[in-house]
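Progress against Task 2.4 (sequence-to-structure conversion) is shown through the following example record, which the project officer requested during the mid-term review.
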Amino acid sequence: MHTTAPESAPPDGSGPSGPSWSTARLASNPHEDAEKARRVQSMFTSIAHAYDLNNRLHSMWMDQAWRRRAVREVALAPQDEVLDVACGTGDLTEAFARGGARRVVGSDYTPAMLDLARAKLARRRTTWPISYVEADAQALPFADGSFDVVSIAFGIRNVTDTGKALSEFRRVLRPGGRLAILEFGQPAQPMLRWANRLYTERIMPVTASLIARDRSGAYAYLPRSVETYLAPAALAAAVGQAGFSSVRQVPMTFGVCVLTLARAS
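Structure tokens generated for the chain above:
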């Protein structure tokens, strides 16, 4: 998820030059697009209103289970302070608060997502120690060693420079702090892999776009961004290169989702 969308951009993510992500633009690697940050932000602004609904329906409610597993694997201590990067509407942020963290900060690059996260939190009428901050994952507005845990769920592939973001995560973690990255993968079993690709590349883009009434190309970008992003093993290697140790990965739902865990050295 990813500064404020241009004021001239309509809420559906289209603009004078067309959608955020056209078929022609997605024919090449979207991670190499010079305007990736702006396009991703515009895209998320356009789908924010239906983001939670689409996440639940199109993951068959597994997205919440994946987040709960991430919280369990991190093994929170009562004094832990957590930064949830690319927090979107706050699902993982809230999961860490439920898990007993002393303080949780959710950050995101898209103001529209943060507006929804704050509204959701207000509806809870809880005393959870949560705050939300607009921030770029590649230039976090926090001092060195501010957190015990840094998480990012389905957002690492949306930043412009993965290595720069990982370096920032390492910088804001205390020594021995934990990193948790949730990201999509592909099942290893051939038939499951085929079925998953059929669903994510052919069916989901149509149904999710209809639900969101979206013309930004968001739901064509999302599977394409997974296909062209680092494979789980390559992401694990990048985490190690950024100064983390004890890197391990936990495949979930046949490998559709992979949790990458590491410690700040």
